[in-house]
Amino acid sequence: MSLAVQECHGGMGEPGSLHQPVCSVLRAHLEKMASVHMRDLFESDPNRFERFSLQVGEVLLDYSKNRITDETMQLLMRLAEEAGVAGWRERMFAGDKINHTENRAVLHVALRNRSNRPVVVDGEDVMPKVNAIIERMGVFAEQVRSGQWRGYTGERITDVVNIGIGGSDLGPQMVVQALKPYRHPRLKVHFISNIDGAHVKETLESLNPETTLFIVSSKTFTTQETMTNAHFARSWFLAQSQETKHIAQHFVAVSTNSESVAAFGIDPAHMFEFWDWVGGRYSLWSAIGLSIVLAVGAERFIELLEGAHDMDEHFRHAPLAQNMPVILALLGVWYNNFFGAESHAILPYDHYLRSLPAYLEQADMESNGKSVDREGRVVDYATGSIIWGATGINGQHAFYQLLHQGTKMIPADFIVSIDPPTDLHKHHDILIANFLAQTEALMRGRTREETVRESGASGNGQFIQHKVFEGNHPSNAFLVQKITPHALGMLVALYEHKIFVQGVIWNLNSYDQWEVELGKQLASRILPELHADLPVASHDASTNALINYYRRMNHTHPD
Ligand code: F6P
To answer: Region 327-356: what's the mean pLDDT?
Structure first.
């Protein structure tokens, strides 16, 4: 716990509030800011964009359309200082075991440490083994991509299937989709995560066992969904190939658990290792990214790592006030803990980034969806936001109505690339125009007078009020030159560090996930009950009734 928190805990805090000394000043400042409209802030300051925007590499962040002044930002920076962000940041980069409930270091930054400076965990520099695995992934991927690696009948591999869930699925899937323009022309990459049998069946339906390579991606190699799907894929493969010796050419594993990989029948020589200091939702930079290397090649993967490393360097060295992840995190805290905003929308104006919201849902909510602080005390302030979103342009025709005219404050991140991903330039101009129009409209709104003027109706018209937009809705705009591997690496690392900073301010361990463990336990207790001979009575009345209804109505049997 930081000293600042200790000093004022139990004294200065109010229910629902943070406890750093600056928080009472921020609360007083909020009273002033609550009635300030951004429209007026822009009118009174023509340099607002210059003061509240920042470029790091190819990522430009405009955060001027937020309900902030210089004073707000200064106070928020004090909050970061009082919470000890700089110290915690150093501890993470130094390999301290900041994931204290699992006694683990948090070192996804080592996976993309392109400076190669030593990173020591338990007395060992981890960089040689990080570099070795990147090298092995590259060699293997090149064999498959070039056609040197063949299936058991001598055919080239045409399809790669990653079987994993959560962090072993969402990250690589999002990146492979985002980098589609860079993909290998003849190698398709598929992802199976869902335990709904439709997912695995539908995916395998169109594939040929002779030309399919499976990557079983699981940190623990015990996750029920992944192992069930992997065993199904194995049987599907053996049904045609007949001999278990052929598994060697068609199944590889990514895991920290070599014993279980061997027990599954995968040659340990075909296992790509990672380590317990890589959290599942931070693992796309590790061997979990093997499907990415297969899709776009080793060079592009390295560019992705370099982009993330550049953002790491910025995060580690830039002063807090010019630090992009810190600024984003503090803006989020401002709305979450002071304005009472419950959610935060991620709105990529980019077809290839359409899985980014789902990826960030896990990254953020699994990290900061906690109600107990690092010392094990139940917190009395809001922590992680509800993260959600979709491609912005589709959202405009779906849920933006609520963003503009609903009763909730929903801060939003708008993301777009300047270079179009295709040669359809007119499409891209329309996309950009919408991107800009929406952030402007959210900020400005439309007053009653403007509405009357624009509609030509009289101010007393019955529906005028329905067409008025209050505005004053905060948003961040990200303009990225082009969604290259490097830029994508920067963007993802930016969000990772934002999550880190918020976790520090809320005094959370952002790197454990005890709910996932609970989910596993609960499902394994119920599973045998679904086909029990006698009615189930060991749960609450609702759960018992539902299990027993299922038992009566379901006439299938487990495979
Ligand atoms: O624990 C984090 C997490 O990414 C969860 O989202 C997911 O359920 C799990 O890991 C997947 O675990 P594994 O990689 O061990 O199969």
So the answer is: 98
Question: Which atom of ligand 1 lies closest to the CA of 283?
Answer: 4
Per-residue pLDDT of 455-484, as tens digits, reads: 775 555 679 999 999 999 999 999 999 999
Determine which one of 366, 473, 496, 529 is catalytic. 366
pLDDT in tens, 482-506: 999 999 999 999 999 999 999 999 9
Looking at 9-23, 397-411, 428-442, which range is the least confident one? 9-23
Residues paired with residue 413 on neighbouring β-strands, in sequence order: 346, 476
Which of 195, 261, 509, 513 has most ligand 1 atoms within 8 Å of CB, for mutation? 513
For the chain, count helices (H), then strands (E): 24, 13
Closest-CA residue, ligand 1 atom 9, reads 166
Instruction: Confirm if 312 and 109 have CB atoms less than 8 A apart.
Output: yes
Rg, Å, the chain Cα set: 26
Tell me how long the chain is.
559
pLDDT value at residue 520: 82
Check if 218 has its Cβ closer than 6 Å to any atom of ligand 1.
yes
The residue assigned the tokens 């979450």 is: 336
220 lines ligand 1 (CB under 6 A): yes
DSSP label at 339?
Answer: I
pTM of the complete model: 0.95
Ligand 1: distance of its center to the CA of 353 in Å? 22
**Which atom of ligand 1 lies nearest, measured to the CA of 362?**
6
